[in-house]
Amino acid sequence: MKKFILLMLAFVSFQQMNAQQVQGDFTIQPKVGLNIASWRGDSYQQDSYARLSFGVEGQYAVTDKFGISAGLMYSQQGNNSMVYNLQPANGNMYRYKFKMDYLNIPILANYYLFKGLAVKAGIQPGFKIHDNISSSMTHSFDLSIPVGLSYEYKNVCLDARYNYGLTDVKKEYDQKNSVFQFTLGYKFKL
User: Fold this and answer.
1) Residue 151 maps to which CATH number?
2) Which of 13, 88, 102, 161 has its CA 20 to 30 A from that of 19?
3) Which domain holds residue 180?
4) What tens-digit pLDDT sequence spans the chain (190 residues)?
């Protein structure tokens, strides 16, 4: 009998530990973070560099283990590339930082593996709001697939994602965004 009671207590404790949220809860999360941005595609040397990201995400708890979130993120992206000097007398290469800023709208499915830890995946349309390249050379829309993990402790949420770009950044080039994004946020229940 003693073992049965201990087993039942362990089961109830495990179920409580797995409870993530209450079905029907809606939370909002302001967040700020760091992007490690680059492009993938054409073969010339492309290096990543650190840029800023901030915004807000809201999440609806469909069940205690599954939620849907949507957000609005200001995301500085781009690429640190080696390019050829365009002057005819000088064919040397130099490093140039392509800067492109987007308003991204991440729409994610969030599945909680256990208390505090969620895996997430979805789709992210993005709209370019600024760049340091001729606008006639770049596309104004970007579509990405974000996948990642988040961990929440006492409403503080650490999120790590990889945004896999599907659309070309520059016209007539095979170059897509590749962004590792790390954010820290705070969840408020509404």
Assistant:
1) 2.40.160.20
2) 161
3) 2-189
4) 555 555 555 544 444 444 457 888 999 999 999 999 999 887 656 788 899 999 999 999 999 999 999 999 999 998 887 665 555 555 666 778 889 999 999 999 999 999 899 999 999 999 999 999 877 788 999 999 999 999 999 999 999 999 999 999 988 888 899 999 999 999 999 8
Give the 3-state secondary structure of the chain: CHHHHHHHHHHHHHHHHHCCCCCCCEEEEEEEEEEEEEEEECCCCEECEEEEEEEEEEEEECCCCEEEEEEEEEEEEEEEEEEECCCCCCCCEEEEEEEEEEEECCEEEEEEEECCEEEEEEEEEEEEEEECCCHHHECCEEEEEEEEEEEEECCEEEEEEEEEEEEECECCCCEEEEEEEEEEEECEEC
Which pTM was predicted?
Answer: 0.82
Domains identified in the chain, total number: 1
Tokens for 96, please give them: 């140039």
Contact 76, 53 (CB under 8 A): yes
What are the CA-CA distances from residue 42 to residues 60, 97, 117, 146, 149 (Å)? 40, 16, 36, 22, 29
Contact between residue 15 and residue 32 where contact means Cβ atoms under 8 Å apart:
no
